[in-house]
Amino acid sequence: MSELRAAPPPPRSELLTALSARLPGVIPGFRALATDLLADSSRIDVFGVTDDGVAVLALIGDAGDDLVLLARALAQREWLAPRLADWLKLAPDLGLRSGEPVRAVVLCPSFGPEVRAALRSLEPGAVELVAWRFLRNGSDADLLLDPLCPAPASPGPAVRPGELESPSSFRTGLSERDLGLSDAERAEFE
Known about the structure:
This protein is an alpha/beta fold. It is 27% helix and 26% strand. A hairpin with a 4-residue loop joins β2 and β3 (43-49).
């Protein structure tokens, strides 16, 4: 059996194609409509729609691009929202619903504490963070997406002022109790 190992990413056009194919695994019902779409003054890497008509934009960057991409995602959400009604006039079969908030997905190899703090100040589900890695398995290479802050299905319990949630050793924020791992199983991941 081949061993998985990190691989350098392919050229940007191939990376966007791989991203378009993998996003339905992160955003259920996602269908890519365009890649490398010119917005106001920068490009939207992947633009698409979910089965329920929500517009989604995705931006992919390298290590260290996370803060810039978060700002760009917020700007592009604002640029895109008022244009959806016009796009529906031009192409009513796209399946878009105007008037819905545009979702953004920011993809980087890692995310710093400033990005995570900024994300907490936004409405839930507005922007999702997804770590990406390009892995090689023998002669095959593939893009792996790991959602870090998926949109919650329902609101979680509120933290009262003065209380702090216990920090998690997992990127997902789950606790060891949530996972129910034994000491032997936990040791396999370290």
